[in-house]
Amino acid sequence: MSETPTSPRGATPPGAKAPPGFKAPSGAAPAPKPVDAPAPPVETVADAPVGAAAPPGAKPPPGAKAPPGAKAPPGAAAPKPAPAAVPVAAVVMAPVAVAAKPAAPKPVPAKVEAAPAVAAAPAAPKAVSRREFLNYVWGASMALFLAQFGGISFLFAMPRFREGEVGGRFSQSVADFGYDANGQPNANNVGKFWMVKVGDTINAIYKVCTHLGCLYGWNSTGKIFACPCHGSQFEVNGKWIAGPAPRSLDAFKMQVLDTSGNVIATSNEAGEMLQLPANADRIVVDTGSKISGKAHF
Amino acid sequence: MAIIGKRLVDQVRSTGLKATVAQRLDDGFTRLTSGLSWNDVRGVLRGDPPGKPNNRVKPHTEAFWFHIRPTFYHEAVTTLYPTFRLGYMSALFFAIEIITGIFLMIFYTPSPERAYQNMLDILTNVPFGQLMRDMHRLGAEVMVVVVTIHMWRTFLTASYKKPRQFTWFTGVILLIVTMFLSFSGYLLPWDQLALWAVTIGTSMADAAPLVGPQVNLLLRGAPDIGAGGLLRFYLFHVVLFPLIGVIFVAVHYYKVVRYGISLPPEMEGVGEDSARKVAPDKRVNFMPDILTNELVYAAIAIALLTIASGTFYNAALETHSNPLVTPNHTVAPWYFYWLQGLIKIPHVLPILPEALSSQVDTLAFNLLGITPKILWGIIVGPVIPLLLMVVPYIDPNPSRRYSDRKVMITLGVLFEVAILYLSLAGIPTGVPVTNFGFVGGDPASEIAQEFMPDEGIGKVKRVPWDQLAVGTWQIVPPDEAPNAPEFNLLLRELQQDMDHRTRQADPNGKKLNGGTANVRVKLIQPDVKEFTLTISFTDDKGQPQQYSKTNYLHRNSGYDKE
Fold first, then answer.
1. How many CB pairs under 8 A join A and B?
2. Which residues are bridge partners to B534 per DSSP?
3. Which of B13, B146, B172, B387 has the greatest number of CB atoms lying within 10 Å of its CB?
4. Is the pLDDT of residue A80 over 60?
5. Best B196, B326, B354, B365 residue to mutate vs chain A (most A CBs within 10 Å)
6. Which of B525, B368, B528, B504 is nearest to B446 (CA)?
7. What is the CA radius of gyration of chain B?
8. H or E segment and range at residue A290
9. What pLDDT does B52 receive?
10. Domain limits, chain A
11. What is the pLDDT, as a whole number, of residue A46?
12. Residue A225 forms beta bridges with which residues?
């Protein structure tokens, strides 16, 4: 709003105070253009069809007012005879629209007067200059770099595991599946699974509650699994009974081996209780392949 | 060098040594204060009116610490109402947390092997270590409260309206940062509370659709919280979140300097903002009035925090974390109870009758893959802060007057009631009257949990060691041990609790059936007694059942003296 537009390098209007490093051009009317100025406003005026009202190359009247909104930089008004191309500094990319303005014959109330000149401008859409284009390309490459950086950050921050640290194969004997003296199912605390047995069927049930990751415990009075955090309850076979857990307990894939090491039975896809064959000897529980419990609705 | 020396010599020659030294000292002083000489500062301290031009604004334009504060306030905002100085208090507590936190960092190593031992060292071996930890913990909780009330006040006085929308937006970010800061600090003591509260928290992230498992892995550093998770949470706590906090505090402060503090709503016309258009006679200069006032607030707050931490407040430290046992009644920190309550909502549309809502659940799951947990915990939970962020942009009412904002204030109050209700549901006992949120095992284990909790010190451990009478004592009716009044009181309380649970069902409809119980105290080592509570009852199927739980007490435990 009230910020004074600063002159970007190369677009210093004649007569305006040059940024440090430039020598201010002496107050001569068609001011010599500063070094490397790409589009000197005065030339644009001559070519601009919009500015037809003004004789080409006509000197704008001295002291022409800046368009509304763009306050002239403090130094701009000082050298009187300078052509009032000041606004160019504010709108670098719009030489046509701005340049048309000082060509207007009468610098009466700027606000009213400036409007038609600006309104006429959209007829000639501003072409993408080389600088603008290169800035887009540069910006796009920066965006690409940031995206790559984001991807690399993700990969970098993801944890890495040693082999066997997560998921492993646990070989249990058939006798491990069952209950201890207090009636609590046996468990493998390293693999984090219960080894439950109901009749002739067995399962390796993951010890973590399907609700929010607490370790549910064995409720010896109710003969059920009950979670201490949010009260979810499950049957011995992992089936959901009550509480906020969204699904029954998860189970691990099992392979049943006979005495000579042949696989004679495996868990089914749903991870249901597995019927134990008569000649079963060892059971291999693969904690690397977890089977999600059944959602209960 | 030679020239400086010559000038000095010249000055000494012309004005004398004393005057030269005085003048040079004052020069240095003026540099330190960014523009105020010693006499200017004395004028401030004496309460002299500022000169013309007022050179006391110089530090606001020249110096960093003053430039983030306005040069003056409208006199209407210098009273307690409307700001209650809550924003300042939030920043103050942030500073207290940083300072106490740095002290704690000196003695802390984020490794599972050492963290818990470090905590014990801080509590017992480090001078003022316990005070530092208590101040850090209590300060964090107070900060959550202050920040929340600050937001609530800003909402009520509608100070979030134009032009302060973005200030509010950054404020909501700061609220979230405050909560995350507090929560990430939870894991660091590496006790049971830490491990399991954070397991619950990260499991919530795990349930998010699509990205959940990845986010969970990023947070935990492994499928389960361990060394990697502890290090990650430590870095969140001491680097990432403080950094985000500092950045947004800066933005927030800049906006306050830019727009001023909004006047009380009744003092402005509708749609008007006059905080920066203050008539000279209504101005209260920051220096010295606001400054001294704020220093008084800071002094009182720090004094209260120190006294509370030094006397009654003790930050809990539970037993060493155990990844194999989840203690009973594990809960998230209290400021996340509302979220915990949200995830206890059992249905997608809980207002419908039971049978119908189950069908809706099935439908939602089959059509959209949404379970109640995903909906309430993962979708609605995070949407609430997002909703708070956009409040200024969607509130169409330009007026800040209370009387013009009946709808908005009603919505705000309803929101607050909902949060409180959900918070109540978040605790294990749930909402009284309804059984919403109730988490309970069978009555026998609940009695044991009440008197002998898994974590913390229960009534049993508070009985003096000498009074724990060795022998077996019946509870129904309670026996009387000789010369052990507190032990006998414990037996009577146990009997009353059993009686209560026999007559009245818990929210799940469970009662204690035909309960009898006894307590056995045994001297198992010269200085250790074993206390076993055994409750016998009949279960739903009419089968006799027994439940027992054991506590151990050492002669020098001294829980009774705490």
1. 96
2. B518, B548
3. B146
4. no
5. B326
6. B504
7. 30
8. strand A282-291
9. 83
10. 1-124, 169-291
11. 40
12. A218, A234
Residue B229 is given by DSSP the state H
Looking at residue B5, its pLDDT comes to: 80
B423 φ/ψ angles, rounded to the nearest 5 degrees: -60, -40
DSSP one-letter code for B289: I
The pair of structure tokens assigned to B132 is 């530092």
C-alpha distances out from residue B206 to A276, B196, B203, B218, B372, Å: 34, 15, 5, 10, 15
Domain boundaries, chain B: 2-68, 77-268+278-315+324-426, 443-561
Tokens 């607030």 belong to B297
Within 8 A by CB and 6+ apart from B491, the residues are B473, B475, B478, B479, B481, B519
Give one DSSP letter per residue of A164-178, joined into a string.
TTSS-EEEEEGGGSS
Nearest Cα to Cα of residue A292 among A266, A262, A264, A272 = A272
* Closest-CA residue of chain B to A221: B545
Spell out which residues of chain B touch residue A221, defining contact as CB-CB under 8 Å: 442, 444-445, 539, 545-547
CB spacing of A212 vs B365 below 8 angstroms: no
Spell out which residues of chain B touch residue A216, defining contact as CB-CB under 8 Å: 326
Average pLDDT over chain A, rounded to whole? 70
- Which of the listed CATH numbers 2.102.10.10, 3.40.50.300, 3.10.105.10, 3.30.450.20 matches domain A169-291? 2.102.10.10
B10/B252 Cα distance (integer angstroms): 51
pLDDT of res. B280 = 87
CA B486, CA B467: separation in Å to the nearest integer?
7
Higher pLDDT, B387 or A114: B387
Is it the case that residue A68 has pLDDT exceeding 60?
A: no
Q: What is the DSSP string of B436-477?
A: TT-----HHHHHHHHHS-SSS--TTTTS-GGGS-SEEEETTT
Q: What is the model's pLDDT at position B13?
A: 92
- Two structure tokens written together for B505: 């069902």
Report which secondary-structure segment, H or E, holds B151.
Answer: helix B129-156
CA dihedral in degrees (A59, A65, A71, A76; nearest 10)?
A: 40
Place A233 in a pLDDT band, splitting at 50, 70 and 90. confident
Segment A168-191 mean pLDDT: 88
Instruction: Provide CATH code, domain B77-268+278-315+324-426.
Output: 1.20.810.10
Q: How many CA atoms lie within 13 A of B464 on its CB side?
A: 8
Edge-to-edge order in the sheet of strand A240-242? A217-219, A224-226, A233-234, A240-242
The nearest alpha carbon in chain B to A207 belongs to B324
**Residue type, position B70, single letter:** P
Q: pTM above the 0.80 mark?
A: no
Question: For the ranges A118-132, A222-236, B140-154, which has the lowest average pLDDT?
Answer: A118-132
Q: Give pLDDT, residue A43.
A: 41
Q: Which residues of chain B have pLDDT under 70?
A: 1-4, 433, 435, 439-441, 508, 562
Mean pLDDT of A25-37: 45
For B308-343, b/e burial (b = at least 16 CB within 10 A) is ebeeeeebebbebbebeebbbbbbbbebbbbbbbbb
> Does the model's ipTM exceed the 0.90 cut?
no
Token reading at B264: 């009380």
Cα B247 to the center of its chain, rounded Å: 21
Give the DSSP H or E segment for A233.
strand A233-234
Q: How far is A25 from chain B (nearest CA, A)?
A: 34
Q: Residue A27's CB: how many other CB atoms inside 10 A?
A: 13
